[in-house]
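== Folding task for one protein ==

=== Format: two labelled lines per protein ===

==== Paired sequence and C-alpha cells ====
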Amino acid sequence: MSRPVPFVHPVIVRYLEVDQQGVVFNMWYLAYLDDALTAFLSAGGLRYRDMLESGYDVQVVHTELDWHGPLGYGDPAEVQVGVAHIGRTSFKLRFDVLASGRRVLNASTVYVAMRTDGSGKCEIPPTLLCALGPVT
C-alpha cells in the first residue's frame, strides 16, 4: 500500500492537554506519537487490530524528545512520521510535530516486535515490514 512521504497525522490539541503554563503538557506528546504510529501503520495496510489478531504487537523500548517551541490549545498541529531504521526485531521511527509549519518537537522512538502470547520479542513479521515501508 502506498502512502505519502512524509506521512502526516493531524493533531487536535484538547483543552485537557494544556497545563497551567498554557502549553501542551509534555506527557501528551507521547500520546500524539502513539496515535501517529497507529495511523502510519494503518495507512501502510496494517490495522492495529489485525496486528494483534496475527499474534504480535510492538512495544516502545526507547524514546527521545526534543522540544523547540510551544503548542497551545486550539493550535493546528500535525505529526510527520518517517522510518529511520529497520532491524531484525526492532525498528526506529522519526517524528516531527509541527504547528502552522513551525517545528514544536522532534522525536525518535525504537519499537520491538513482541508476541502477544507473552513469550517475548520476535523477528519483525512480514506484514509489519510491509506496512513500515522503506527507510526514508
About this structure: The chain has one domain: 7-132.
